[in-house]
């Protein structure tokens, strides 16, 4: 891309009426928020309703086996996420961010809606869990482009000195999706009987994904691709580039020219994957099933933590704009290494106030990573492979470490007999992530066109 081409494109975008530019940024923000909200509301619902789903699809006489089967389906749904990341990433880098995000939301919300329509094991036998697994894998394939694509899209619109707080909207929308799932689960567990929950209650959050997906699709149909992406496209011979290299040309470029950055990004994403799923989706199950805490109390704690988490994420995005992504991400690694084991020891007291304080502290530690990671990954790769690099590193880490976190934690407790075994697992992952971040580079002050 030539400097003159970049200048012309940027000037064209800047010369639009201010109200038009603000309207476009607002639409990008709203569509990014809602897309991630749907994805994580679905994942939260699956985790928070895990005990009920186990009864509907895996009615064995052994509760631990049923829970492991339920979390096993959760983990297996992540297998297609790296493959989906390569597909949607290449699509977004080759054909545009807008097109990739518009199509991925259809598959993602559609699969979630169909989960809410599934018959139970009692109705069709083994076909029920098989259909559940298939739909979870379709959802995982489609969702793999959502987080990375939305963060890339929004980051490319954001001003350089405020990219951190702009991109923090993505994890904030994620936590709000989890908050909505937690709130719904708490209200339903309080007001519905067990038979109602098993019969129809668990279906409600999944059915909601259908109409929400159509709303996001409509908003995204009104968007234009980011000025950074348009600048790159205008600098290329579009007729020729559409033929050269094929659909997966961004993938080839990523592995041949940016493998080191990809490996470091994967390391940074490992801690986010384990920490996010362990702290925000597994702990409610851990507190009720392992510690023996009242379900309503653990749900209330989760709700309070998720509300606080939203504000913490924005705060950490702002801090990363002031001090850089690398320092904040290293701080998160050190905090997880030092605090996780003591935190789990306190969780095992099952006392409301101490557990609330500890979960809030763990949320603050996690937001140092989560509120910074989306801007860090956006700044790590050049425009031609930004979507692919972000999506693949993020989703590969989530497939290996995120989707399996609840399964591994439950299995470690059963294997070792120690209720704090998951804490040591998090410490090891945090140590690996720390090494990756020490090897990383700081790009917070750079224009994305110059990376």
Task: Tell me roughly what share of residues is in helical segments.
Answer: over 70%
CATH architecture: Up-down Bundle
- Overall pLDDT metric: 82
CATH class: Mainly Alpha
What characterizes the major β-sheet?
A: none
Rg, alpha carbons: 21 Å
Describe this structure in words.
The protein is an all-alpha fold and 451 residues long. It has a single domain (20-222, 256-450), classed as Growth Hormone, Chain: A. The chain is built from 24 helices and no strands. The chain has helices at residues 3-14, 18-48, 50-57, 63-76, 80-95, 97-115, 121-124, 127-143, 146-157, 163-167, 169-191, 194-199, 204-207, 209-221, 227-234, 238-241, 249-257, 259-291, 295-323, 325-347, 352-380, 386-402, 405-416, 421-438. Helix 5 (80-95) runs antiparallel to helix 6 (97-115). The longest helix has 33 residues, at 259-291. The radius of gyration is 21 Å and the shape is globular. Belongs to the major facilitator superfamily. Metabolite:H+ Symporter (MHS) family (TC 2.A.1.6) family. It is found in: Cell membrane. May be a proton symporter involved in the uptake of osmolytes such as proline and glycine betaine.
């Amino acid at each position: 891309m030539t400097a003159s081409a970049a200048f012309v494109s940027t000037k064209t975008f800047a010369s639009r009426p201010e109200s038009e530019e603000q309207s476009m940024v607002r639409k990008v923000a709203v569509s990014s928020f809602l897309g991630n909200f749907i994805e994580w509301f679905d994942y939260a619902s699956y985790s928070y309703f895990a005990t009920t789903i186990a009864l509907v699809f895996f009615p064995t006489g052994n509760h631990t086996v049923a829970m492991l089967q339920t979390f096993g389906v959760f983990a297996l749904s992540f297998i297609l996420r790296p493959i989906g990341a390569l597909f949607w990433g290449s699509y977004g880098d080759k054909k545009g961010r807008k097109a990739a995000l518009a199509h991925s939301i259809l598959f993602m919300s559609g699969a979630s809606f169909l989960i809410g329509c599934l018959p139970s094991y009692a109705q069709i036998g083994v076909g029920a869990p098989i259909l559940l697994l298939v739909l979870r894998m379709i959802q995982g394939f489609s969702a793999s482009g959502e987080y990375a694509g939305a963060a890339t899209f929004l980051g490319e619109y954001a001003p350089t000195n405020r990219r951190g707080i702009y991109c923090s909207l993505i994890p904030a929308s994620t936590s709000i999706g989890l908050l909505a799932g937690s709130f719904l689960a708490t209200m339903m567990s309080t007001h519905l009987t067990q038979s109602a929950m098993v019969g129809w209650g668990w279906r409600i959050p999944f059915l909601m994904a259908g109409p929400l997906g159509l709303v996001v699709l409509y908003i995204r149909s009104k968007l234009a691709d980011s000025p950074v992406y348009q600048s790159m496209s205008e600098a290329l011979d579009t007729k020729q580039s559409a033929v050269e290299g094929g659909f997966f040309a961004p993938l080839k470029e990523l592995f041949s020219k940016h493998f080191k950055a990809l490996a470091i990004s994967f390391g940074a994403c490992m801690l986010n994957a384990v920490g996010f799923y362990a702290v925000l989706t597994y702990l409610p199950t851990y507190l009720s099933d392992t510690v023996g805490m009242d379900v309503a109390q653990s749900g209330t704690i989760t709700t309070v933590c998720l509300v606080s988490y939203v504000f913490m994420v924005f705060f950490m995005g702002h801090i990363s704009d002031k001090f850089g992504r690398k320092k904040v991400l290293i701080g998160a690694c050190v905090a997880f290494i030092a605090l996780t084991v003591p935190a789990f020891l306190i969780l095992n007291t099952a006392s409301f106030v101490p557990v609330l304080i500890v979960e809030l502290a763990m949320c603050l530690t996690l937001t140092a990573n989560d509120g910074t990671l989306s801007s860090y990954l956006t700044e790590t790769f050049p425009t031609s492979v930004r979507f692919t690099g972000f999506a693949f590193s993020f989703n590969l880490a989530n497939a290996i470490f995120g989707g399996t976190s609840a399964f591994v934690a439950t299995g470690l407790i059963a294997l070792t007999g120690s209720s704090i075994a998951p804490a040591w697992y998090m410490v090891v992952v945090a140590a690996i992530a720390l090494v990756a971040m020490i090897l990383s580079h700081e790009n917070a002050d750079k224009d994305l066109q110059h990376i």
